Predict the 3D structure of the following.
Amino acid sequence: MAEIIDLRSDTVTTPTEKMREAMHRAAVGDDVYGEDPTMNRLEALAAEKVGKEAAIFLPSGTMGNQVAVMTHTQRGDEIILDPEAHLYYYEVGALAALSSVQARPAQGLHGKKVNVEAIEAAIRDKNIHFPKTRLICLENTHNRGGGSITPPEEMQKVAELAKRHGLAIHLDGARIFNAAVASGRDAREFTRYADSVMFCLSKGLSAPVGSMLAGNREFIERARKNRKMLGGGMRQAGILAAAGILALEEMIQRLAEDHANARLLAEGLAALPGVEVDLAGVETNIVAMETRRTGITGEEFSRRMAARGVKANASAPYRIRFVTHKDVTRQQIEKALDVIREIVA
Ligand code: TLP
């Protein structure tokens, strides 16, 4: 079979041999009773990595985000987030369906400069007609922002605003370790400005399944109850936790390779006629390529690449998103560039 170069997402990464070995040997127990020793080890390690008191394992990042919102809010509350936030854009309307909260999108909640004024303007006062603003959601790195990093100093500004207004902050840190590695900072420098943080084990970190939600002990206790309500209480989940422990112990620093590959890809694309890449915006493992000037839609571009063995998704009518990860080599990036060169020629 011809080689497939899969740049659709870092979610496609497969577990390492060492993870499979560890899963095979994992000590397990019933995690709903809190008796799975491997899971207990993962949850403690995860909490430590992001500087929080406690953490729980969830089957997906989506469930992690939604359990967080459910735990922070009450029915009818309003939450402030970026209109491009994963929580709002890609989670099947779960905010409304599961937590009965209203989303208040505010522009510019991510990137080098956060629009603190837009957040402040979105916070409701006590007028009887208004819903209660309860929560601000941030996303770092920002998926639809092309993997952009929001520096800790910008998060701090949001945290100070939230504190003044008595609001909580949830951080969708699906790729927080990409942000940390790319900026040469500890993940805790980012997460200290959030009351709760979700991060994924099964994206760049390559575990087969799972995400973590971390926060203070009392919050995580209530989140555990909400996870159970959604059917997310798992039994011998140590099999999955074993891979998660390796994800956190061994797979973080190597994300730098994915970032170097993304840069290589971005520079190669920027040199091609017709397509456009904002090079300064490529900070981690995501590259957004605009196709409008070629006249080829994102969907059509995606089809033409797939026919030549390169997979990447359209993320807007004239945009392709490429995501680099452990299972794509530097050499494959060069090959992908050859394919794209053929298409735009
Ligand atoms: N993102 C996926 C798709 O859902 C778009 C991807 O391929 O990038 N937060 C962020 C910032 C994410 O990018 C994702 C996954 C999630 C949450 C949800 O994680 P999962 O897929 O585990 O539910």
Remarks:
- Residues 255-270 form the longest helix (16 residues).
- The chain has a mean pLDDT of 97.
- The two ends are 26 Å apart (CA to CA).
- Residues 32 and 233 are 6 Å apart (CA to CA).
